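My current task is to audit a protein record that another person submitted. Alongside the sequence sits a line of tokens, each denoting a local backbone shape. Where you disagree with what is written, explain briefly why. This is what I was given:
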Amino acid sequence: MPPRQLELLNPEAAAVQAVPSSRKNWIAVASAEHARRGCAADDGPGYMQVCHGKGGPLQRVRAGDRVAYYAPALTMGGKDRLQCFVSIGTVLPGDPYRFDMGGGFVPFRKDVDYVAAHEASILPLVPQFEFVESPQRWGYKFRFGLFDISDHDMRLIAQAMQADLDLLHL
């Protein structure tokens, strides 16, 4: 199909495909319960929320960027340790937007095209990550809730999750 027709049929996918090599890779941190909810949306695309719904961090994330969700625990604030990557996908075009989740909680979100993947433990990947400066303190960056990583590290995560590298443009 000629590129022009592709753009007319699916402008969001075409916009993501057209992103130059300036794509960034992000690790977002949330409980598995929350991350799974974002990739299981049944009323539209998946979404991401970070840092308890703050909008500022999402302003750094652009269409075409890749995001992998890391879950230290099953539930928010829980002692039920998980330490797994639970979802991975590509950010769709659009600005962060507010979403009313009820009970007065109205976090900011960005839409994400999640790909099929299996949850994967972080532990075997830690020695291979470029972002880990000290293996004894590998969890340090995760306390920021959202941080960027290299293509190398995103590829390691995607491979561990058995995600389709072509769909992630890796």
Summary: The two ends are 23 Å apart (CA to CA). Residues 127 and 135 are 7 Å apart (CA to CA). The first strand starts at residue 25 and ends at 29.
